[in-house]
Write a structure and sequence with these properties.
Layout (H helix, E strand, L loop, with lengths): L1 H25 L4 H24 L6 H16 L4 H16 L1
Helix pairs in contact: 2-3, 3-4
């Protein structure tokens, strides 16, 4: 019985994630909608990261903001994601000394 529950739970979790991928892949959208859909990952990532930037050091929230700004500049410069993260970490570390 437990095996059937696990299989059922996995199907219920997997189907809503897999089916839209197959359906959306075959659909054609207008260019403005494609641009809007393309921005969703960046918006979601920003919403997840921004609270962490403000809570790096609760006594000195400006450290996280400077680290975030350095990360934005490095990302716009076209650096690899690893280098962007390392740059932000080094910035916060140096400023907190």
């Amino acid at each position: 019985m437990i095996i059937l529950i696990i299989i059922g739970m996995s199907l219920v979790t997997m189907l809503p994630r897999v089916l839209p991928a197959f359906i959306v892949e075959k659909m054609q959208f207008r260019p403005w909608l494609n641009r809007w859909l393309g921005a969703i990952p960046y918006a979601a990532l920003g919403a997840l990261i921004f609270p962490g930037i403000l809570s790096v050091n609760p006594e000195e929230p400006h450290l996280g903001i400077f680290g975030g700004l350095v990360a934005v500049v490095l990302a716009f410069a076209g650096l690899n994601v690893v280098l962007v993260v390392i740059g932000a970490i080094v910035t916060v570390f140096i400023l907190s000394l």
